[in-house]
DNA sequence: TATATTAATCGTAATATTGCAATATAATAA
DNA sequence: TTATTATATTGCAATATTACGATTAATATA
């Protein structure tokens, strides 16, 4: 096995987990934080900033792009990445709705 | 390889990714949603509710327990799980802070 | 005590992820 | 055109994750 049975879950559940999976690696968290913090929009600085090999960073960027949280812009020989604001905003709604569910105090069994 | 280099990241980055990793599987999202929704606190209902084998559900519950988001209470032969409110609340702060970072509009290169 | 009932653990197969060296590709500069 | 620079892709080894059958452990009930 090793294969997640996505079919048995709702679209919403798969959507939440797909986003969360991308946040589930510290390198991708670090990349996003760097994009947020940095005034210049970045590209290959991430390699020396984070300390992983260039192909590894490239791979993480690819996954961030795949879920749409970032987008890249070619500038000469380098590529500048930034947050995809609309998709980031949508993500915020999806994740917030999930983590802000109200706990039913009447039925606490612990 | 296949081994995440946690040492090169901050505690905060590792903390965020560790929480997110747990949300990164639809079964665990479904389990949490079921605990939130259900009036009775649950246990083995999850198996038939979700449609994965009992050992698989048990394994997912274990990971949710490991990060502290749920706790279990033995009731006879069954175990009743519920949200660990304090840890859930802490998680909310950590994740909210991360996803609610302000986008620096002046430096959008895309 | 014997027998259900329920959940956890063990063992294992299949697949996914991480990380990097080597290489390829793309764009500019000389 | 030929370097140079920056990023992406490929291929692969090491490790992690997912899923489940079989088994075990713990409690309840006959």
From TrEMBL, chains A, B:
Domain HTH arsR-type: 8-106
The keyword Heme appears for this protein: no
CDD domains in UniProt: HTH_ARSR
Keywords for this protein: DNA-binding, Transcription, Transcription regulation
PROSITE patterns linked: HTH_ARSR_2
Transmembrane segments: none
InterPro entries for this protein: ArsR-like_HTH (IPR011991), HTH_ArsR_DNA-bd_dom (IPR001845), HTH_MetalResp_TranReg (IPR051081), WH-like_DNA-bd_sf (IPR036388), WH_DNA-bd_sf (IPR036390)
One family name in Pfam for this protein: HTH_5
Entry protein name: Winged helix-turn-helix transcriptional regulator
Organism of provenance: Winogradskyella echinorum
Taxonomic placement: Bacteria, Pseudomonadati, Bacteroidota, Flavobacteriia, Flavobacteriales
């Amino acid at each position: 096995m090793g294969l997640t049975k996505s079919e048995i879950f709702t679209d919403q559940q798969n959507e939440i987990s797909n986003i969360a999976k991308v946040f589930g690696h510290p390198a991708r968290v670090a990349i996003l934080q760097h994009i947020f913090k940095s005034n210049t929009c970045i590209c290959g600085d991430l390699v020396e900033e984070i300390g992983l090999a260039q192909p590894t960073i490239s791979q993480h960027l690819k996954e961030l792009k795949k879920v749409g949280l970032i987008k890249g812009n070619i500038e000469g020989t380098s590529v500048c990445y930034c947050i995809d604001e609309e998709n980031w905003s949508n993500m915020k709604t999806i994740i917030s709705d999930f983590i802000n569910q109200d706990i039913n105090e009447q039925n606490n069994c612990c």
